[in-house]
């Protein structure tokens, strides 16, 4: 029998599977009885779970961030699947590989890193290349790079998402360096790799994705600048001016003050990095939204708040 | 002796050359004497001209849009060159090739069109390919495509600028179609070519670049939609639905209502076209600005109103 | 016995009447039982319906857009009427006149059209008058004009609403033409009639009011411009310049880019049309809101999101 | 010989006429000599005056706000008329009727007031009618009403301009009261007359139009509210509630907080007053702008900052 | 036994206590049975009450604004306390001191007023001091000052809150007058006391806090200006200019047009009053929010819409 | 004879004094002759200088940033003083104390620093106190603190201005710590001192005030964070968490993203620091503007672009 996943569950299915508890709320129903509302996830998606019996007892059995084994049944509620939980059991965390319960990049992280390092080695400026290599091959950092998501939600919000986003931008930069030969390719690649690297420490992704205290207090741009200082200080001849150029690229990559960049891009490469980052993030976000919406079988999406519009759900590759 | 052009004029040069009159104002000086302020252009740029003598007489000799032969001398005023006009003479317009007096794209228009048509021929959808070919090869339209600028000022504001902008976006789209394989390449190429094609009629570029009445009243997006209707109505099997998709791409390519698009992009390809158009226009605009500013020899640009910032003028390809 | 309508239903009434299904959702209650939430409408308004029994069975009996015969009872929930459905039965659509289930303009459409045509015949410019008459008397268009709403919701969102809105603006324009004699009355009347005429194709109003694909992709302004081209091309001597003036009025009638107009009004008549359209729409919208709110018997309305304020519900004609 | 006015002066005319000094600046020319720049006005417009000789001596002869007799000559500077002053002489202010030197409404103030009072007498609510009559017939206020402008510049900025604006709105309100019969006509007329009446004290218009200290510190809305209190306190049975309704109309007539209204319109009549005031002001402003621009003989206006656009200068009444 | 208050209620407590009814809604449950949702308040806070039995009967027993005696039990619903009401009984309003059921300032109102009057007596300008004293000691106004809240919700929204806010600002102004000696201390104190004094009439706080009709129609700034007129007219030598300065301070104290001030601050003291008012309000608001959020025991607050952010809940005085 | 300064120069004065050259432009006059426009400063202000003779020769004698000895005469041009330069001579920079030519704080820097250090020593948290002391007493930093301005223009733009701004805020914080006892005084003082300390390196103030490359590329907030890292790394027990709190205060002190803060204040002390910084800067800016404007003798200021208003110039301390 095929393994049951959030994605392949269907209306009226009997369920016997394990999920990560991403949200957990207990309520008192209008009839005076307690009930529980859960967000249950695995590596294919998230489903709402509802529990009506023995709530008082079961609520003490597990916490947010635990993996639980669930028996129950799927129902459709307003065209969305809901899992009515009949029984549940907490799995001992030491027996759990939490990554199995979070979505993953569609490509293999190790493969992506190999391709990325190849590109890095083609950088001409010794100092910049060294800075990037020392970072990506740092034994503490490398495993984080292989796993970190690019965001809490919205775009590339999955295991390996940051690396996928970095690699996508690097490939675009490789093209742009040829298309606009007046641009410095080394800086483009540096920016592609370092603009979001502070997210390795801004986000925590042990059980689900959340912000760290550092992330909330100082943010990924500040963290990345500190990383530049730390790594560059060990590279002979890495000037303060070059550090400032690197930091400027990081600090300006959101493009506008109101998007949280304390500096606007002040040279061409910084500007291109901000624009391509925005471009790849938007395409990835929209891809995720459209894939979700297409599941409904409608021609037009529901109103999308982020983009403030309805989307046409036709796949143009099939239509034309 | 080298031909005198706006670009190669230097302080204290004696001048004997021909220019297009792009602006013409007559003033009364504080000493009660009339003077004339001109903007004089050729295919390398524009210089301010000043005339102090025989103004009453000479002002009747020529009009805005004429080409005149000027004798005079170059002076520096606040680090900008100024041409003090001593004598001038109007050239019979029938003897003038006005294009010699406007800036041109850095590439040959015919070559660009050849490359563009090659790409068009690789489009898979017969209807779309036919629509684009019927347009670019229309004997009335083709010569306009070879010459039209992409804007009155700001970006690609030169003879052949529109074609240069179109070709640049087509190349980017060719890459994007491979990079994001879920995008329909035919629509990307259609959008690259048609999004601004209404500018052929929105702008007039006989003597200098200005807006036509049509351009001011209905704009290039409306004109392009009418072109789609006109051409598509002669292509067998070109459905109204496909027309509407084409028109949607045109109408939404400014990306936001406040930028003059009556529709926001509602599918992925329309969104990518709007973003890549914005991207290529910004890079081109900034390139022009930085090239101009670098002439000053300063490290930082003057305050730039369009981007609301000062730019670092270092060329990173030389610096790194 | 008086016919039961949404408007005249009262708390605790037993109901036996027919309604159009405007929304239909099935849910699973906290007790694990399915229930159904409906929006049920007739020509006097809309009421929420709730069904608790035999949901699985009945949900298959009818679809959104059907007319159903309902037996049940009215209850008050948070001061709003709710219809508890006990039994329901689908009516064969071929036996239904759907217009009986949508709100209507307060005036007779045929009468309004007669008055409108009378005004049109007083236009002095032969080309403009012909353009308008050829449109309103087009045997395909005329029946649409008699029935179309002016919007999906908000203002004049009822059968005949567009005509009511057009006629109201025409009367105001008739006055304005006298009040400001420097305005051209023909253009004012043209704008009053054509600014929203694209809505005939932008909206679908068979069972409820919704947007068409054309409406979403290219919008009513683009559609109206195409109508101008189609009709004007058959009128001898109708110049392209006059077409552009007509199209400009249409394209600029939302007044500002951020309201979806690709052009700002560039002559006085275009400006007045945009302002009067806004004025009549706002008055109509507010009238509808206040009439609804007054039903509550309160002195102040609930917070109104559209206008971002609370309204005083006193009727000043009664108060003073 | 026709009297010389700003309007009928032509290039190269010898001038011998009287003007109000609206601005006066003394400068030191680049040749070290002093010169004087004046704005000289009469009831037909304003012209720039320039004086090159005996500046030191003449500058002590007159002040801003004086009327002077000027001899000199007209010159064109950048298509605008300039008056080169050769001699000048101050006129004893006691011999001057300053109103002869300010633009006037195109209609006779007394006639306008008669029409206005007639409308007021048709108001049905005794208290409101009394309030308005007591104000307009107050022997201190009436002469101000006959003369006050509606603004410092922009719209109705001439002697009698406020009355002209009030009367225009009253006529529109008279129509609107019939067109939308649910509106209370008395409140519409009250709002038409009182919304800007504080301008009688906000603006000073003895020699030119300027703001008073009261105008700058508390503004015309606050002043009008105080007037309501003062007048209403002498009318038997004028309730505080009615006063508050009157004040609300005044305080909300700019429509939005950011336009300086401390309250948004909270009932229909207040909303209509704000919209019609905005409408009549915009039409009047645009009329003034277009009339000025048409003098240039161009087809398109210069860029207009207030409306952020270029205007088409064709008169549609002549064109169609 | 300790008196039961909203604050000291705990999960599963049996309740027998009196509360003010701040909101009252009756609904029909999904099982067809009616239920009632109440907001019940005392001087320590507000709790949601839910009633499941005998709803039809009990709903007629009491109204919004009544005090009721409740028997029931506390339950947690999504980490918030909820009171399940078993029995309830209306208390005869004549037997109720409603202030016992609204939150109060943490300081004694009489003490605060004594301190305030002491500061007022130190004002140097006789007219201003008299104006403030005549107001605060007015036998009609004084009792209102002792009780009024500063707002409906958000900041200082409790009995005595306005006085607490006024006194806090007065103390800050006392400091600022010394710190910036170029500021006029009398005006600072006047502004501290009068900027919000119109709230005495803008808000009603008999049973809960709500807006009065005057408050909604003309607002506290207009009301305060009328108070200045009323009181100043009885003080010999109080000039109209001083009145206008006082009114300007009141009218400009929201600092920006879009915050509802019809005038921007136009002298230093008016500016300082607007800024200090904003400062004290924000600190007080944030204090209230953080105190509430800290009850949850979390390190970070929930998303706060007013400030558009998450707050760190650490108390820095404990942490450092 | 009193020393001649920019401030005490009067119309028609003969001048023989030294000034710093803050701007230098050479133009060609309409008569074809060259002239020079200078901005000349000393520690009391700045005056425009104009030179008409021997421009070609004298322009080579000195550069921007030099101090020159000038002979010439004062003239009034549009109510502003202008210095007509007859002769000039460059002063050997090694003989110049440039600080004599820049405006200074009104208080002695050494005295201000003594007071500041006294406050710092009263901080309770050992780590924070040490961090601040190690910074202010760093032999490289201390002399910069004594001299740095707080901004390029606008507020505290003079020698010692940063220290004056810091001390002013510290005093306010000392008060606020008592007024709002729930605030942590140590963090308030830290924020007062460190929020702008990066300006020591962001600004250069050798000859005039300008931005450094570091300032433009990474800004004073980033620089200050690096300083925290550098100093804290040498203090035993200074946790990373405390560093992040310090950095958060720095990074959030502009209060809003659009003002260049990459983080919004997320705890009370950070919020208070942002508000008090804004408050002291605005008061100081406005004080400077009003002092300048009052020199004109007018009752109302010219239009002020920064604050978008006209200011009343009355000194309320004199008026009341």
Automatic annotation (TrEMBL), chains A, B, C, D, E, F:
- Pfam families xrefs: HD, tRNA_anti-codon
Q: Which UniProt keywords apply?
A: Hydrolase
OB domain: residues covered: 25-89
Q: Which organism is it from?
A: Bdellovibrio bacteriovorus
Per its record, how is this protein called by name?
HD family phosphohydrolase
Q: What are the recorded Gene Ontology BP terms?
A: rRNA 3'-end processing
GO molecular function annotation = hydrolase activity; nucleic acid binding
Instruction: Pinpoint the HD domain residues.
Output: 163-280
What are the transmembrane regions? none
């Amino acid at each position: 029998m095929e393994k049951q996943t959030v994605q392949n569950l269907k209306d009226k299915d009997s369920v016997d599977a394990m999920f990560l508890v991403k949200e957990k709320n207990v309520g008192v129903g209008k009839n005076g009885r307690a009930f529980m509302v859960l967000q249950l996830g695995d590596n294919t998606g998230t489903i709402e779970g509802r529990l009506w019996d023995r709530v008082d007892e079961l609520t003490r059995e597990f916490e947010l961030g635990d993996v639980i084994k669930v028996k129950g049944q799927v129902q459709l509620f307003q065209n969305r699947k809901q899992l009515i939980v009949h029984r549940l059991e907490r799995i001992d965390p030491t027996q759990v590989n939490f990554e199995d319960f979070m979505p993953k990049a569609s490509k293999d992280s190790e493969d992506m890193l190999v391709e990325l390092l190849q590109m890095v080695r083609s950088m001409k400026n010794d100092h910049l290349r060294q800075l990037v290599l020392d970072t990506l091959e740092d034994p503490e950092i490398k495993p984080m790079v292989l796993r970190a998501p690019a965001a809490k939600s919205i775009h590339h919000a999955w295991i390996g998402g940051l690396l996928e986003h970095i690699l996508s931008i690097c490939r675009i930069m490789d093209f742009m360096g040829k298309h606009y030969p007046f641009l410095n390719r080394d800086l483009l690649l540096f920016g592609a790799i370092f603009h979001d690297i502070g997210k390795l420490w801004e986000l925590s992704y042990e059980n689900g994705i959340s912000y760290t205290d550092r992330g909330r207090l100082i943010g990924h741009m500040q963290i990345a600048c500190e990383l530049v200082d730390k790594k560059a200080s060990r590279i002979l001849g890495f000037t303060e001016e070059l550090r400032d150029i690197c930091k400027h690229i990081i600090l300006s990559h959101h493009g506008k003050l109101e998007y949280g960049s304390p500096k606007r891009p002040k040279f061409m490469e910084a500007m291109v990095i901000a624009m391509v980052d925005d471009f790849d993030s938007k395409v990835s976000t929209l891809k995720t939204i459209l894939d979700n919406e297409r599941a409904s079988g409608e021609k037009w999406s529901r109103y999308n708040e982020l983009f403030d519009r309805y989307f046409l759900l036709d796949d143009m590759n099939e239509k034309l």
